[in-house]
Amino acid sequence: MENSTYKVVIASKNPVKVNAALDGLQRMFPEAAFVPEPASVPSGVADQPMTEHETLQGALNRVANAKQAHPEADFWIGIEGGVEVIGGELATFAWVVVQDREQQGKARSGTFFLPQQVRELVEQGVELGTANDRIFSHSNSKQKGGAIGILTHNVVDRRELYEQAVVLALVPLRNKSLYQNPQPQR
């Protein structure tokens, strides 16, 4: 990428997701400038995705809906947080999908397990951010450090967790020639 300015539609107005997307782009393309456009678009999945597949589908849907709503952009980024029961415990993670005009990259964030009290609320249909706020006596934690920030005492926060996944999702876009769709063999 040359020294240019690029419009980025982030499929969320949550400042944690917006900043994670911008920081990840800036780390991978330090020579470029990015102008963010946060956009509320539907994920097409439950407010609290309960499986890996549903979470990835939500990120893919957010990118598709953002691209449809803002076709003039240079990049579209969808970040979807989700949970899944693994070995009897509730794990949480996020999927990130990044699309430019030619190709797409995907990556998953790190995963960690939630306390039993949080799991019980989520399994009753409470969205994870709301469950965290109730259990940990916080307010609007999903637009701040999130569960990871609370549980690590801010050693790692939600923005940092998502930023790394944004960087990983950008790998194909940073290495375009290695990730080109191969031509069908004849």
Automatic annotation (TrEMBL):
Phosphatase that hydrolyzes non-canonical purine nucleotides such as XTP and ITP to their respective diphosphate derivatives. Probably excludes non-canonical purines from DNA/RNA precursor pool, thus preventing their incorporation into DNA/RNA and avoiding chromosomal lesions. Binds 1 divalent metal cation per subunit; can use either Mg(2+) or Mn(2+). The gene is yjjX. Residues 11-173 form the Non-canonical purine NTP phosphatase/PRRC1 domain. It catalyses: ITP + H2O = IDP + phosphate + H(+); XTP + H2O = XDP + phosphate + H(+). This is Probable inosine/xanthosine triphosphatase. The keyword Manganese applies. InterPro entries: ITPase-like_fam, Non_canon_purine_NTPase, NTPase/PRRC1, YjjX_NTPase. GO terms for molecular function: ITPase activity; metal ion binding; nucleotide binding. NCBIfam families: inosine/xanthosine triphosphatase, PRK05074.1. GO terms for biological process: nucleotide metabolic process; thiamine metabolic process. Its EC number is 3.6.1.73. Its cofactor is Mn(2+); Mg(2+). Mg(2+) binds at residue 72. Substrate binds at residues 72-73. Keywords: Hydrolase, Magnesium, Manganese, Metal-binding, Nucleotide metabolism, Nucleotide-binding. Belongs to the YjjX NTPase family. The lineage of its organism: Bacteria, Pseudomonadati, Bacteroidota, Cytophagia, Cytophagales. Homodimer.
